[in-house]
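Batch job 17 of 40 flagged for manual review because the log was empty.
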Amino acid sequence: MSKVGLITLDLFFSGGQYSEETINITVCFSDPTIEFLTFNYFLMDAEGQRVDCGKQEILSDQFKKETTFALPLSKTKIMQNKEQYLVKDALLLRCEYSFSTGDILEGIERIDFGNVSSKTQNVIIEKQTAFNTERKLIKHSISLSEDFKKLYENPTLSDVELRTKTKKFHVHSAVLCARSTVFNSKIGNDMKDKLNKCLEVCDVDTDTLRE
């Protein structure tokens, strides 16, 4: 964990005399390398359950200035339901953020805020050390695998049909060619002039082809 502060959160009340007091959060940034940041915030109720208070997506051109937004629950609403929202007479706020310095998500940080009252509560969120290369590759490999699975499960845009002795498979020729030099040759040479894009693969077991 780096000791360099990434974000400063400032919590304060606004309104009051002629309107309801709202709880506001001001976000200040101190890392110029951040390109994009997603900020989720929740109230923790007396049972430890999260009450979703919203999500903010902030672009780099907003980082030069403070960004302020209000919680959806007013002070009056919270006090009227203090048995639900206050834990030992304190308001507990959980914040989660993810940020990117360009191409790859750098990390996710979670932190709890307690004892929020009419006084301003300042909290420094420290920058999390970036994920190492291996963890990044694993994460993106999983995502890519899930994307290929969706392509397989949705045959709408498929352009080739593979037929075994017992089953038909609707597939995408570009993916098939990239995954197999044999199919690349068959599709490129045997099917380029065919209107019926169908390949007979009777010598391949159905379960093997599915995998």
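Reviewer: the log was empty due to a logging misconfiguration, but the result itself is present. The helical segments are 75-80, 82-85, 133-153, 173-179, 181-190, 206-210. Unflagging and moving on to job 18.
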